[in-house]
TrEMBL record:
GO terms for cellular component: plasma membrane. Keywords: Cell membrane, Membrane, Olfaction, Receptor, Sensory transduction, Transducer, Transmembrane, Transmembrane helix. Belongs to the insect chemoreceptor superfamily. Heteromeric odorant receptor channel (TC 1.A.69) family. This is Odorant receptor. The chain crosses the membrane at residues 39-61, 136-158, 178-208, 261-279, 285-304, 356-378. It is found in: Cell membrane. GO terms for molecular function: odorant binding; olfactory receptor activity. It comes from the Eukaryota.
Amino acid sequence: MDLKTYLLSMSFSKLFKIFKFSVVSKTFRPLHGDYKSSVFFILLTIYSIIICGLAGLRCIYTFTDTNVKLMETVFAALIVQGFGQTIVKNLCGLPFQREFEYLVDWIEELNAKVEDNELIRGILEEELARSKKYSLIFLECVSLMFFICGILTTYNWLSNDYICIIIPNLPRDTYPVIYNIVQLTGLYIAAFSIIISDLAIVFIGFYLMGFMMFTNKLIQSHTDIENLQKCPDLLMHIMQNHLEIIRILGIFNEAVKLTSFLQLLFSTFTFLTLIFGIQMFKGELIMYFGFATLMIQLALLCLFGQMIRSQTEEIFINLYLTNWYELSLKEQKTIQMMMVNSCEPIGLKAAGMYDITLMSLIQILKLSVSYSAIIIAFTRD
């Protein structure tokens, strides 16, 4: 069975175990008594800090050795940025253990929820199935991209004898095998850490989006008299879901506000390094795959911010398009209250201040291209 077939056949319970495992990487604390995962990620972080330090030494060594290969310096800078980003992003999850744990429980309860009404149950099951499908597609695509990057990087480093780290008191010419083992091990640990760390945010994001789409479909169903006959208390369900959306979005925003800010910040520097590498080494395929992988990683975060904002705007529009004028005064006041709460769109905010949308991705790319052009100009001079 290939990876795609296995992932598509994966049940929610198996996917949920992977999700809980990924959440532990964000907080380092046991989730529902999972101490083994907590210890695993603590040790992984310690090893990552060591690799990041060794690659940092390689970057510093560049200034004292005129014979150093420029490509080695570029790879060393990418290692520092990649490990640094993952370490800092995960450490930023430490203060938000309660929020992440609450979101995990909310997703589990949402999937275990059994609706008595056939109309509501059908729409909910459809959106939950879609959320699971998109989570699996993300896991498959990102795993494949990082796997290809890992294979290409391994081949590139070994065939060109690139050494991107410096181990104190251990000459690279005398112990090349040890250097290759350490840096290649670090490479695959970095890829694994990034995939697992991002999966926690992506999984929550997809299920949050699914719940918002579920609510929007309920609002749209309210315009159909036949649906109102099937579910007389449909408006009450809509109001409860709307309040739930506002509450969960607040918790999600609180949990990822520092992580999203650091993602944008580190991605700017990493894009800058990759664009510089592409311009200087146009024949290196690994640079293009690295750029594409980072683009997917950042684009997903920006896409979530854009879609969450769009869905909250759509709630207001859908409420306005209901046949509110045919409802009782009490029901009209309920819709009016929901519309007032939906006037201001809710989206992801980096550090609680900066909106995360697709425009953020464009601005980061423009900034990276501009500064890389300046660096290239100075390098060639």
